[in-house]
Amino acid sequence: MKKYIDQGKNDTRSGYGAGMTELGRSNPNVVALCADLVGSLKIETFIAENPDRFFQIGIAEANMMGIAAGLTIGGKIPFASTFANFATGRVYDQIRQSIAYSGKNVKICASHAGITLGEDGATHQILEDIGLMKMLPGMTVINPCDYNQTKAATLAIADYNGPVYLRFGRPKVANFTPADQKFEIGKALLLNEGTDVTILATGHLVWQALIAAENLENQGISAEVINIHTIKPLDEEAVLKSVKKTGCVVSAEEHNYLGGLGESIARTLASNYPTPQEFVATKDTFGESGTPDQLMDKYGLNNKAIEEAVLKVLKRK
Amino acid sequence: MSQLIKYYNYRLDTQKIAPTFGIIKKMTMSDIKALEDIVVQTRRDILRMVHKVNSGHPGGSLGCTEFFVSLYHEIMELKEGFDMDGAGEDLFFLSNGHISPVFYSVLARKGYFPVEELNTFRLIDSRLQGHPTTHEGLPGVRVASGSLGQGMSVAIGAALAKKLNGDGHLVYSLHGDGELQEGQNWEAIMYAAGNKVDNLISTIDRNGQQIDGPTAEVLPLGNLNEKFTAFGWDVLEIQDGNNLEEVIDGLQEAKKRTGKGKPVCIIMNTIMGHGVDFMMHTHAWHGKAPNDDQLETALAQNPETLGDY
């Protein structure tokens, strides 16, 4: 299989920060909002270079979403950022009415998504945000896999007119996508061709899927790996094309299996091409304190879990 | 009827509205009479709209009629036509979206969309949804409202965008008093003062009523003037928000106080259901439509001025 090289571990949130720095220099309409988490969101450079285009809202996420909606009236492109938990569940109705239903061009940029937030525990981890956001009509949902892709996605959503939920994380993870790769919203990326099984992964689980595919190859199993960075709109064509070839699928995400990427894939398959599917995801549970690696292991969100799911789904073909 | 509408539009065209900052136009008696006519006609529109579909919110709409007519016909500087960005004009945001009937009537009679469209209020396939929204593209509406407590944040965002764009126009918002029970308001109130959003005039419809009863019984709001003042706003009160001249004077005074480092709050005392005797001084008509007989009585108290739609 094609080899992917880790160019050096980095956090996806720093990819967001780097994207914001570039947008600060290239797009005068981009403005940034934050709810008292500037350091965690890595937007210090944007703020230093564009103090007039940054709004420190304080610990008031509901107000932040409303102000972001208002800033679009006047042509601004607001990037409203905080932890994923506070950017979604806490302010669902504000996003629903003032942003999504009102069709506002707001970019909700959420760090520390999923269980890899780690030691702070379940109050700060969120495993339901993809579901919450994808259910909103008109909302685009993006979960890039590494630093480079998060930076590219940050740049891409500024050029797209409409509400977007951009989800990224806290820990340093492998950075393996090309630095110059353009980000195309809604266009899945085929990372490894295979014939026995399709692995559809998003976010931090994409790198784990590549490790799994390599290990499976050593066992004589040919796994196709696709990076579903955009969960909504889902690239159904890419999903169906692959699954028609392999005949079974494993979905992998750092999210509850209720409401996540796996369910979107299952719906697509059920409507078009019913296929055995296994879900690598948390199973209707809250997280807990621990290191990111410990939590990914305990909750079955790593290459090992993907490999086991592949062996299981192959038996169901 | 269409002739009456034409006459009305002609009158609007000839009215010199849109005063600039700091210049207070002296109202003449005939100006006031023209606005009074719009107020009465608006009340008829409200009553007929909610009666037709046997739903909607007449109480708060009737109480805020003088405010809306003053704002759109006397106070705000508005461009021809409608675009979402609203650059180079004043903006208004209705936070308590359930009083959509008064909003729709005033928008229609200001020329944002045909007055005949008021016939479609709350009907299937209508742009006049139960609560205002941008979703169906109704001119004059810039954000959805109805789920309470969100409008001030949006108004602040629009005011910040105006400052960034070097646009000296003002942003107005209206909020129910009961709506202030929603916590997001106080996030917004704190932010606006802390960040000197001084191109914002937020009016509180102090009618003392909400769905379940008087605000004093449901959840007492205390002294709103002192609360806003303590948060750092410049506060003024309109003692009788159903007196047209008093409302206009209050709004003119509020305009004078903008640009001085503080957001401006107007506590506007109104009577829910004003203009219809049996709807006044009670929360009963917050979200209830009159039946045929009640409509007849109510319309008789508000005789046709500009022509029904």
TrEMBL record, chain A:
Organism encoding this protein: Ulvibacterium marinum
Pfam families for this protein: Transket_pyr, Transketolase_C
Name the record gives this protein: Transketolase family protein
Protein family per UniProt: Belongs to the transketolase family.
Keywords: Thiamine pyrophosphate
Cofactor(s) needed: thiamine diphosphate
Residue span, Transketolase-like pyrimidine-binding domain: 10-175
Coiled coil: none
